[in-house]
Amino acid sequence: MLIKSQKDFFAGLLFIAIGLGFAWGATDYELGSTARMGPGYFPMALGALLAALGAVIAFKALVIETADGEPVGRWAWRPLFFVTLANVLFGVLLGGAPWLGLPPMGLIAAVYTLVLVASLASRESRLKESLALATVLALGCWGAFVVGLKLPFQVWPAFISG
Fold it and tell me: What are the transmembrane regions (predicted)?
């Protein structure tokens, strides 16, 4: 069988894998019924919907000729590494790492680290633009989550806020 659009085919397979993963993870929770939904109902429905969407995309990639049907290129290791590292550091800075003796550093430090490390994924990023984006996102996260939703996030590191 000839794949007419490799990008769409592999994107469809990725959607199927992620959707099935969410649906499988939802089996740990009570599903309930349509009238009385349990905590696993929504992730199961979204996972199944994403897997179905992925199946449609993969099928279309096998049947319909597309303009961008060129093969998938090389792996972009630099963006993959820096975006993954940025997300891991965000989680560690926001929640702390007791096994490393690192206390939570707060929302502001986590957002700045996330943006600055993720900006290293592109050779075209500039420090001034990244700092401006980090400032806007940090203020937006603080305003939305701490002020607006009243979530109990530590905003600053303990050595600053006391």
Answer: 41-63, 75-94, 100-119, 131-153
* Angle CA 5–7–9, to nearest 5: 70
Structural domain of 28: 6-63
Residue 68, CA atoms < 13 Å, CB-side half-sphere: 5
| Residue at 153 is within a domain | yes
Identity of the residue numbered 84: T
pLDDT in tens, 66-75: 776 667 777 8
Q: How far apart are CA 19 and CA 58, in angstroms?
A: 14
Tell me how far apart the alpha carbons of residues 157 and 69 are, in angstroms, rounded to a whole number.
49
pTM: 0.67
Domain match, 91 and 25 both: no
